[in-house]
């Protein structure tokens, strides 16, 4: 499969949590750690209308990952396709990467006692499949797209593109972090 981008349409998330369940099942995660989550932006009044949003969050596969920069054991690497991976055999559970990530996307997996984060389901990608969270997204909020598809899907919409993740909305003007 061609190198892709995780496209997150914040207007379409219905807060079904299928993405979270799919990720936990795909990665055999115990209760607690999550590589993906849906965050609720509490109800608020905007232009006289009550509004609540649900936003999918995960590792952004940063262009210059801080988690990788601070790892004293070289356990975190970035592939040529931009996916950032943790080598569980090299990880010594020091936690520097957990504290360095400004997005809270990396944590210690209590089942394996190593750092863990979203890998974009790299094993699935290598077999030509899409990430599990995308496959199970019932609201159509998540898509795994090629650069050409990304341009078409975001045309005329507000977008923020970071690492290998692109947030898009027709309703909200998105501001880069």
Characterise the protein shown here.
The chain is an alpha+beta fold. It has helices at residues 18-27, 66-70, 96-100, 122-126, 132-135, 147-154, and strands at residues 5-9, 36-46, 49-58, 76-78, 84-86, 107-109, 114-116, 142-145, 158-162, 165-169. Strands 8-1-10-9 form a four-stranded mixed beta sheet. Strands 2-3 form a two-stranded antiparallel sheet. It is globular, with a radius of gyration of 16 Å. The model has no long low-confidence stretch (mean pLDDT 92).
Characteristic terms for this protein:
10 strands, alpha+beta, 177 residues, four-stranded mixed sheet, 21% helix, 29% strand
* Biggest sheet layout: 4 strands, mixed
Q: Give the radius of gyration.
A: 16 Å
Order of helices and strands: EHEEHEEHEEHHEHEE
What's the helical proportion of residues?
Answer: 10-25%
Q: Judging from the principal axes of the Cα atoms, what is the shape?
A: globular
| Average pLDDT number | 92
Number of strands: 10
SSE class: alpha+beta
Question: Nutshell version of this structure?
Answer:
The chain is of the alpha+beta class and about 180 residues long. It has helices at about 20-25, 65-70, 95-100, 120-125, 130-135, 145-155; strands at about 5-10, 35-45, 50-60, 75-80, 85, 105-110, 115, 140-145, 160, 165-170. The two termini are about 30 Å apart.
Topology:
Layout: E1 5-9, H1 18-27, E2 36-46, E3 49-58, H2 66-70, E4 76-78, E5 84-86, H3 96-100, E6 107-109, E7 114-116, H4 122-126, H5 132-135, E8 142-145, H6 147-154, E9 158-162, E10 165-169
Parallel strand pairs: 1-10
Antiparallel strand pairs: 1-8, 2-3, 4-5, 6-7, 9-10
